[in-house]
From TrEMBL:
EC number: 2.4.-.-
Enzyme class, spelled out: transferase
Keyword Glycosyltransferase: yes
Entry protein name: Glycosyltransferase
Domain named Glycosyl transferase family: residues: 236-409
InterPro entries xref list: Glyco_trans_1, Glyco_trans_2-like, Glycosyltransf_2, Nucleotide-diphossugar_trans
Organism: Kutzneria chonburiensis
Keywords: Glycosyltransferase, Transferase
PANTHER family named among the record's database cross-references: GLYCOSYLTRANSFERASE (PTHR43685), GLYCOSYLTRANSFERASE 2-LIKE DOMAIN-CONTAINING PROTEIN (PTHR43685:SF14)
Glycosyltransferase 2-like domain boundaries: 438-590
Signal peptide extent: none
Pfam families listed in its UniProt record: Glycos_transf_1 (PF00534), Glycos_transf_2 (PF00535)
UniProt GO molecular function: glycosyltransferase activity
Amino acid sequence: MSVLWGISFDATPISGLVVEFVKTASVFRDRGHRVHLDLGYDIKADKNAFFRPYREESSALPDWVRLDRPCLAGIEGYQAEFVAEVLREVVGAGRADLLPQVEALACLVAERIVAAWRRAQVTFVVVENGTLPENIIYTKALYQAIALYGREAGLGRFVLWRDHDLMWQSEPGSGKYGREPYPHAVQPVDSPHIQYVALHDEAARKTLSWARDLHDIAVLPNTFDHSPPRPLPGFRAHFGIPEGVPIIARCTRVIPQKRIDRDLHLIAQLSDVHLFVAGDPAEDPDEFLRLQRLGADLGVTERVVFGGRLAPREVRTGRAYSIRDLLAEATLASFLTSYDYESYGNPIGEAIASGVPYLTSDYALYHTVYGHLGFRAPVLTADLPDQSFVDSVAELLLDEGKRARMAEHNHRIGRQHFDRDRTEQLVDDMLATRTRLSVVLPVFNEAANLPAVLASLHAQELDHDLYDIVLVDNNSTDDTVAVARAFAAAHPSLTIHLLDEPEQGVACARKTGMDFAARRLGRAAGTRYYLVSADADCRVDSRWLPELFRTMESNKAAIGVCDYYYNPAHFTARPRLWDAIQRTLRCRAVTFALFGGFPDGKGFAVDRDVYEKVGGIEIFYQLHNGHFVNHLSDDWDFGIRVRGSGEDIVYAPTSRVEINPRRVDHAIEEVITGRAYGNDGIIVMRDIRPERPSTRDVDLTEAQAQQAWEFSIKDFTPKNTILPLLLTPSLVDSADVIEFFGAALVQRLRARIEEIADEMRVVDFTPIHVYKTPSYRLYLEFADEIFARLRATVGEDIGYPPPLPACFSEVPPARFREFVRYYCEDRESGEAHNYFGNGGVF
């Protein structure tokens, strides 16, 4: 099951932040997420709850919310006293000498956060008010944890970070959060894992003026269920409120900043009106006592009900009454808060959604959030209710028709701007755009292999929300399609798209799948999306996709190439064949680490934007036995075009694919002779499914093994050692490449590459043909020196270059380079192609 983890920076059992989290979490819950919530007791130092265990807090929350938190006790130095000192001295006063300790503690706290997320198997995180600099240790730690866990778990944009009280909005007059430009507050980090949300346009504007490099910030106001509440019998009797008397509802915390004294002064000037305060009197006993005294002085004690903390308006819990029940009975709702305390004003939104007229103070952001949209309400502009304000409230209390019209007007606008479907849409968009990778799987008559292949793709250690499968059937005549549909039905957590490609050929099927995936992936700014190629007869390791994803994200390369291997159990009776295979793969590991390699259909990823930039996969046709057939070099051709466009290719050695041994079991004769995929310049797919018993128990002779090795290394070396240098000449300036070749050889290679590039300026049909000839030429000219470096780096058993074609025995040594050119450019005979072969099936 997917798991949502919420973090509230409020450190109170129930508050506006927690209510908003519960509303958002209910959307995730409806979509199958299990919900955990950290109330932030170990974040804020002024709530007297640091390290305090949870007690009865869950009674204020729905039963589907599980209270949870990282274990931060025992981290030396991380105490409420130090957090308070950092807020006062570092954030507020600008003192910098404590910052090294802040950074050190943040690293330790980050480790604990990640451990908690691992334990809970978190897949999504919602942060409420994380930018408020009450505890910059925790904020820094949270950003570190997001980066670490996102990379480790292979998650994309898995964090929704919503700020309610940014430091320039919350108590700016107090100075406890410092002064602009807030040098020691933690700026929002531009992260591929985080979607920021501001509650209104002004908050987004100010955020971007402060954190100018931020890309992903959306505007989403607090949203509400706009269905009208129904009165719950017994509510008035329970709280001692007579039937029929007007009620002004004040849903708030009982603290000085909320200015409940204004409500007491208001009802003192209104007859027969009751005030119901829904807040916890125990949160600030001194303020509660002050309000009681004021009520007695004003003679309104009998008409004031401190009803305690009620359950959130939109979520039923096991508690007797909720804010919804109060608003169902209320005549008016009040929000006479202090000017600079509230940034949003949830109680106004709750009243609008409930169809209750409201009255408000002219707090700092009232017009930004509500007033500019045309809501109607009495607005207090003085410190205490003046006669004009009292008269407007009295008129509303007396005129039922006016109340009804005002409520209907506000409700209609509220549904337009603050309905719950806006939250649902954002969550759905985030969950949808979390699909960062589409794995394209061309298939043709693979019913026997497909269950194991799909099982290995399903078992990836990566959230299924982050990738999907695009399976392209290429005219299968067996049960391939039925197998795919059955697997998709049995594994609904992983999306599998099933496409048809009527034109026969793996290149056509791969292009169809890649083009489809490119169109359907998201378009979030600053987010990279990847098209991934897989092979229907190979199995992938469980870390194949997450390691490929991690490597692509960290290196920002256009293409990521994975590692391939054979299962040695298939070759226990064939040690000579196994040795030939392993020598090729060892060379591959070294050269790919140096040069990045090239994409192979068995497993590579490409950045979707780069794929589109170079025009995607191109199908090139050739004549074979009098018929046009598509060329099999689409993956190499594509890689050459990407690298030739100036983009980078990166090797991901920890992303591994197990090659099906049928590639050598049933084509061994062609492998030995270097004709596995054709000859004389024609490259075609040979169906290597078993048509006869496997030869896996029959080893090669020494001569056959040597011949297989020679064709394999002749196919491999021009592609993987020479071609990268031709495409990216700057590689020869790399310290690692210079170390591999040696300074003298690098200098000669650089000079020769420049000469050949200047000499051969003819543009051929496809990149792979443009680069074959110069690659062959450079190989033949430098073979002895390249193999010397392979022996020194990979091992002495790599040996020496395979013998030259017999025709070179007649060439004078002084004219060797000249005749290499004639040999490699002679396409009519196809001799060069046959010499280098296509034995790279290893």
